[in-house]
Amino acid sequence: MTELPNQQKMTAPPRATVFAVTSGKGGVGKTSIAVNLACEFSRRGLRTVLLDADLGLANAHILAGMRPTKTLCDYIDGTATLADIAEHGPAHVKFIAGGSGVQAMADIDAEKRQRLVGAVEDLRPFCDVVIVDTGAGVSSNVIDFLGAADHVILVTTSNFAAIADAYGIVKVSVQNGHKQPIHCVINRVRTPEEGEQVFAKLLACTKQFLGFDLNWLGVVPEDGCVEGAILKRAPFTEAYPGSVAARYLTKLVTALISKVQKTTQTARAAH
Predict the structure, then answer these.
(1) Any idea what the CATH number is for the domain that residue 253 is in?
(2) How many CA atoms lie within 13 A of 200 on its CB side?
(3) Domain count, the chain
(4) Which residues does residue 53 pair with via DSSP β-bridges, in sequence order?
(5) Are 53 and 89 spatial neighbours (Cβ–Cβ below 8 Å)?
(6) In whole angstroms, what is the distance from residue 134 CA to residue 30 CA?
(7) Which residues of the chain have pLDDT under 70?
(8) How many other C-beta atoms lie within 10 A of the C-beta of residue 76?
(9) Which parts of 64-191 fold into alpha helices (H)?
């Protein structure tokens, strides 16, 4: 992937597809999915940026085995450009780290929040895919990033509270005028059928009560290699490429590739 230029030089037409990875509840593996999706997109030859937008509790860099020298805090403060804070990560992904344990990032005002959302647009001309790892829940920080994405990837598990919170984030998004596709990933399943059953329940609720259709993306099975990769501070698709979780993760990217190609072709046709 080419280097990100300074913002003042960002004049090329938009082309990247933006995927926001989100969840209603913390602890469902959202960030792990986001990091590994980014790595797999990059391995497919797509110039990929991962933006850690879990403001105040960012930890994508930990799962990627990175020690960032600059973060979105520096960008918000105006002491660094996007080019300054984008660092090389595994699988040639460009990582933009968020602020971890920084209360000022968790409590940013609407103006600063919109500047961060604008950063997503600024990245579009210089890559093929942008993965935005949002925070969990229904805060304004999360909803604004979901609205800036072309596609939302909703991660949940079969845990009842996680399913309820996943419905909650869809509800709040729809109430805020969300129109973009929402693709569901059921993580840590014991069988693919378990994931399909969870999705069926969630879809029934969103259709009945919200009039909104969710898209089925797939599952990632429970796999000890995922925890092993976390302990190694590495994406599981890098540390254990032959693992069950890695194989299913590649299926998710295969399903999403057509979304990238369609968006890219549409952007080129428009210019």
Answers:
(1) 3.40.50.300
(2) 6
(3) 1
(4) 134
(5) no
(6) 9
(7) 1-14, 100-107, 261-271
(8) 20
(9) 72-77, 82-85, 103-106, 110-123, 140-148, 160-175
